[in-house]
């Protein structure tokens, strides 16, 4: 389990690499959006492998580095490459960079992912603003001795997904002609895609989409008081809904198809995330 000093050590190393630059928004970008890190102006790259206490992503094509600089007028810290619990990491490892970002002065987090659509009204290619989530079974990312400098032992999750940011995202999507939904994300740790029976159960429980990422970071960000905007891309219909298997090829292909509109949406919403 990490101590405050571990987060502080990472943050201090990063500060030594980015001189007086201070990020305001942490961006954790899912499948298909990693390229947005390359759009950052005057970028300063900090490799995960050089940062004390950072773990390294094992997912192919996920680059392991932080990118600091300006994007759409915002001072950003972009994670190019994220960790997942299915890689063997603890939830606290996956969320480690979020607390480091907090210590660097970040006030908001924009997080995206690919997900399977559970809601019968959803189509492949739709975007969904995450309004809430369900996480049932995995180990909690902030379990263990509470780090008082970062947040309270017990904390609220009622207003996790900042209403103001969701409103802005809805307006901007409408202006761009991008269809956007709002719904509940069910966190399933993977690496298997779900069974059809699990998907039915998730629907009954109130889920609209399912995915294997995002929630450890969201919980940790909420604990330390960051404002949060989460956007899912529906890359496939969830298991049992389409009379075919769920494949990672489909997920990746759909993520690639949507990348231009996804990036456009992110670029128009980002300047409005003012903390
Ligand atoms: N299930 C879990 N994770 C996912 C899916 C899915 O159907 N699609 C993309 N990520």
Largest sheet: 5 strands, mixed, barrel
Topology as a string of helices (H) and strands (E): HEEEEHHEEHEHEHEHH
Helix content: 25-40%
Roughly what fraction of the amino acids lie in strands?
A: 15-25%
Strand count: 9
Provide the gyration radius in Å: 18 Å
CATH top level label: Alpha Beta
Distance between the termini: 29 Å
Physical arrangement of strands within the biggest beta sheet: 5-8-7-6-9
Mean pLDDT: 95
Helical region count?
Answer: 8
Ligand list: hypoxanthine
Oligomeric state of the chains in view: single chain
CATH architecture, by name, is: 3-Layer(aba) Sandwich
Shape: globular
Write the layout of secondary structure elements.
Layout: H1 4-18, E1 25-28, E2 41-47, E3 65-71, E4 74-80, H2 91-94, H3 96-103, E5 108-117, E6 127-135, H4 163-176, E7 180-187, H5 196-205, E8 209-211, H6 215-223, E9 227-237, H7 248-257, H8 259-269
Parallel strand pairs: 1-4, 1-5, 5-9, 6-7, 7-8
Antiparallel strand pairs: 2-3, 3-4, 5-8, 6-9
Helix pairs in contact: 1-3, 4-8
Please name the defining characteristics of this protein.
alpha/beta, binds hypoxanthine, 8 helices, five-stranded mixed barrel, globular, 275 residues
Short description:
With 275 residues, the chain is of the alpha/beta class. The chain has a single domain (4-272), classed as 3-Layer(aba) Sandwich (Rossmann fold), CATH 3.40.50. It has helices at 4-18, 91-94, 96-103, 163-176, 196-205, 215-223, 248-257, 259-269, and strands at residues 25-28, 41-47, 65-71, 74-80, 108-117, 127-135, 180-187, 209-211, 227-237.
């Amino acid at each position: 389990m990490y101590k405050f000093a571990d987060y502080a050590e990472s943050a201090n190393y990063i500060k030594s690499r980015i001189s007086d630059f201070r990020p305001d928004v942490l961006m954790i970008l899912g499948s298909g959006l990693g390229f947005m890190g390359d759009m950052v102006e005057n970028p300063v790259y900090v490799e995960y492998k050089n940062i004390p206490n950072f773990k390294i992503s094992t997912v192919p094509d996920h680059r392991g580095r932080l990118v600091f600089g300006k994007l759409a007028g915002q001072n950003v810290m972009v994670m190019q490459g994220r960790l997942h619990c299915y890689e063997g990491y603890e939830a606290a490892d996956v969320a480690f960079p979020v607390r480091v970002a907090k210590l660097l002065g970040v006030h908001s987090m924009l997080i995206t992912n690919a997900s399977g659509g559970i809601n019968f009204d959803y189509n492949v290619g739709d975007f969904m603003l995450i309004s809430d989530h369900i996480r049932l079974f995995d180990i909690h990312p902030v379990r263990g001795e509470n780090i008082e400098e970062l947040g309270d032992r017990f904390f609220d999750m009622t207003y996790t997904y900042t209403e103001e940011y969701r409103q802005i995202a809805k307006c901007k999507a409408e202006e761009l002609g991008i269809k956007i939904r709002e719904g509940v994300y069910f966190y399933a740790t993977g690496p298997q895609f779900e069974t059809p029976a699990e998907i039915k159960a998730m629907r009954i429980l109130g889920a609209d989409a399912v995915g294997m990422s995002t929630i450890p970071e969201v919980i940790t960000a909420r604990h330390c008081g960051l404002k949060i905007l989460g956007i899912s891309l529906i890359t496939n219909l969830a298991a049992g809904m389409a009379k075919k298997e769920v494949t990672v090829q489909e997920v990746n292909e759909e993520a690639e198809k949507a990348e231009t509109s996804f990036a456009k949406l992110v670029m128009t919403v980002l300047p409005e995330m003012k903390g």
